[in-house]
Amino acid sequence: MVHPNSSSNRARRRSATFFVALVSASCALAAQTTLPASSTIRLRLPPDGPIRDISFANEVEHAIDRGLAFLLSSQSEAGWWSTADHPALTGLALSAFLGHPQDRYRTIPSPALKKAFQFIIDSAKPDGRIYRTSLTNYNTAISATALALAENPAYTPVIRRARRWLARSQVDLGRQDELDSPFDGGVGYNDKYEHSDLSNTLMALEALYYTRSTDLEGSDELDWEAAIHFIQHCQNLPSHNTESWVSRASQDKGGFVYFPGESKAGNTTDPVTGRVALRSYGSISYAGLLSYVYADLDLDDPRVTAVLAWLGENYTLEENPAMGLQGYYYYLHLMSKALATLGLDQLKLKDGSSIDWRRALAIRLINLQQADGSWVNANGRWWESDPILVTAYAVMALEFLYPGL
Fold this sequence. Notes:
There is one protein chain. The protein has about 400 residues and is mainly α. The chain has one domain: Glycosyltransferase (Alpha/alpha barrel). It is about 40% helix and about 0% strand. It has helices at about 5-15, 55-75, 85-100, 105, 110-120, 135-150, 155-170, 200-210, 225-230, 280-295, 300-315, 330-340, 355-370, 385-400; strands at about 265-270, 275-280, 345-350, 355. It has a two-stranded antiparallel ribbon. A two-stranded antiparallel sheet has the order 3-4. Helix 10 (about 280-295) packs parallel to helix 12 (about 330-340) and helix 12 packs parallel to helix 14 (about 385-400). About 50% of the residues are buried. The model is unreliable at about 1-45 (pLDDT under 50).
């Protein structure tokens, strides 16, 4: 692999085509209404001008407030949410509070949030990891992102060490400095000696994006070219991924799988040739799209256009495509984050029509909210029976779509 500190890599990430802004909350990454096909993907600030539908925006804000009230009522005395074993869950809750459309939890100091941030700080290790028991990269990435969103200079040393750990945890399973394994360039749950997966890679890339203001002259930078190598090796796109498992079926083209050779949606077998191929699925395809965003690929790059086409053709709010209700709220969360980040007001569907995805998704989430303000998945796969986790996902989804209403 190219060394993460190489000057060419630093120059590429600092190119004038990539607009960098450490925004004050998740919701600040919303869309402008147009994005020229030839422009470089970049994260966007909220569009200028007033909210177009004030009444509906008030409904969405009310749902956000109810969700955050539930989270406040569910916090432990020690400051953490859900479990003390995994600071990431506390980090997700904090990110939801910091994304409030009116910045309510920034302008009014909250002892509850201060305790939560202190819990994360107390979970930090001298080597940069932020964790308690296991899943070091997962916990470190999400916790570092929450600390960065707080914009508190006191957190900078912890953020900087976490950033360095994440950059150095990039997988290289083949010969050193060569991209000879499809897993090279990604990030896994714990460290670089385990295989990478697309979900943890996304979380690491997102953390590195949000924490980049703490980087000292590129010393903590990732090998982004290697990251792209891994991402495309998770995509069902024969033009860019020649692995034997890649599906050539139209219903899979452009979508993503969990890691090279593994799809949580299972596989298909060609009845004539007997060839086994992996199925694309919804949540991980949005993870792939967002990973390309953080890696600064152009909007008209064929890898980006292919995944956008797959997501449009498989659009639904009833389930996580190809997964049913497994990972459903993670799917909705990533949908809102990805489409808002790209500045897409309309998503083109399989029949050629377009949909106002923000309004449709907001209505869906409002209707799914429980009487106590929470959200929860009846399918417990990937911890989604935990109302803390799912409520954080749902609140952040509403916060991302809010500025474009």
